[in-house]
Design brief:
Blueprint (H helix, E strand, L loop, with lengths): L1 E2 L5 E2 L18 E6 L14 H9 L5 E2 L4 E2 L5 E3 L8 H10 L3 E6 L6 H4 L6 E6 L29 E4 L6 H10 L2 E3 L4 H7 L3 E7 L21 H14 L1 E8 L8 H19 L1
Helix pairs in contact: 1-7, 6-7
Length: 274
Amino acid sequence: MEYGENGSVNIKYDEFMGPGTATYDDADFVIVPIPYEQGASWIGGTSKGPAAVLRASQEVEYYDLELGFSMGDIKYCTIAPVQFGEIRPKIEQIMNDGKIPISIGGDHSISIPILTMLPKDVSILHMDAHLDMRAEYRGNPNSHASALYGASKNHKVVHTGIRSGCEEDIENVKSFGNIIVSPHDIGAILDGLSDDVYITFDVDVLDPSIMPATGTPEQGGINWLEANSILRSVCADKNVIGMDFVELSPREGLHACDAAVAKLIMRSMIYSSL
């Protein structure tokens, strides 16, 4: 914390929950901001998502009262924002260094270069309101509507929280052998995943009543407790090698949405450390 004139406090909002608890070399988790939204198709603003989450994380308590766990017991750091063309080599480097990357989007297209470079024995848990299984959307194969298409060619994919999908989405899910599971059937979610798992979390999987700050809202989503129950169960039962949280589109006056994503990221690190 730095002090300005007359004792005012100057806080830097470019690191998750303030200065990390470790250097990159010592960190177990690496926070990767990716401010990108060229793959979005409706309401913009997701490029501002990472900054909003990092800002909100400054107000989240280090100690999780419900879990009885302090973030001070976790080794993590935040790196500088990454541009779209740098995503794959940066995430590969982090994983090769034996660390768990947690990327903050940005629209869901930021997941494409990550998911398509994962080892084939890694399965993918896709938490989303939409299937995102189109080969392309409006001529763009890097659309957020195509986030899971390429990865499905080589990976087992479990979709949950889904409330929207076109005929092409459904056909591609079937042809690749993906499975769609109710978010209330955690046992089926776990059974559908391999030992090593990557989690891609689109915030519109949450109901718009608690997550209105997203570009493609869809009614009938899961609630806070349900999202945490899935994340906790998967992190406890599987070896989670990486995660991303995408599609937050910050809105003035809706800072609770920014804080919710920050808390989910914090919780995911704790769940993986319990």
